[in-house]
Amino acid sequence: MKENKYKGRLRRWLIEIAVFVVAIFALFTIISHFLLIPVGSELSNKELKSALTQKRLNYVAIGDSLTEGVGDQTNQGGFVPLLAKSIDEISDVNVVSQNFGVAGDTSTQIYKRMTDQKKIQSAIKNADVITITVGGNDVMKVIRTQLTNLTESSFDKPAQTYQKQLTEIFDFIRKYNSDAQVYILGIYNPFYLNFPDITEMQDIIDHWNQATQATIAQQKKMYFVPINDLLYQGVDGSQGVTTSDGTVQTITNNALFEEDHFHPNNIGYQIMSDAVAEAYKEHHNEK
């Protein structure tokens, strides 16, 4: 009787061990499958350990159509996923990105979304890195509303208003997060393609960016990333490429989207990403 009792306990014990071993093997197989790591190799064990212990970095992108990625023919989100990959490579972290870009937004509209939407506020609160694209639509608003009598001085008052709005955006971010590094991309000048008669546009863009840079300099852990010289001149500084069909000459920019000659194309977004990545590489270890 006792012998049968002991045999029964032994059998249950062996079954429990077998179930445990099978469960562990199945779990390891599932993890390996999702990480695309070959099961059983010496290299896979190291890579699995690295993937499981890799630090997470929260990247939040806020802004206008440049953040949304208009002109990106892959529909991946413009420079945002490219930058996330670069940050991953620079810092060896698992980058989780959130994109809050909306085409057409001015600085005022971006600020309103930030103050209205709890999702954006939560993202800012948990962010390690934030990028902002803002200002291009503020410039466009001046052009559209004053096109018939547009002069360089037309931008003076709007530029001052813009700087105040920019400060409110920065203050709002710091209200929720005092530690995140914030990279603000400057605006660039695609306007010479669409408005060739406005010859002062480059000076206007330069002055706008200089004022923005001065505003950012008053903030902590906020960095200005200039992109105008990288984009408005086209790839390799070609300053626009003139093509002709025999009757009409057209100036195009090989860093801009062909359909609107305003937003970056895939190459343009890579250029933007590289510029921010260089700034991140320079500043990411600053306390």
TrEMBL record:
GO molecular function ontology, one term from the record: phosphatidylcholine lysophospholipase activity
InterPro entries: Ester_Hydrolysis_Enzymes (IPR051532), SGNH_hydro (IPR013830), SGNH_hydro_sf (IPR036514)
Transmembrane segments: 12-36
Keyword annotations: Membrane, Transmembrane, Transmembrane helix
Start and end residues of each SGNH hydrolase-type esterase domain: 61-271
PANTHER family with a match to the protein in the record: SPORE GERMINATION LIPASE LIPC, THIOESTERASE 1/PROTEASE 1/LYSOPHOSPHOLIPASE L1
Protein name: SGNH hydrolase-type esterase domain-containing protein
Lineage of origin: Bacteria, Bacillati, Bacillota, Bacilli, Lactobacillales
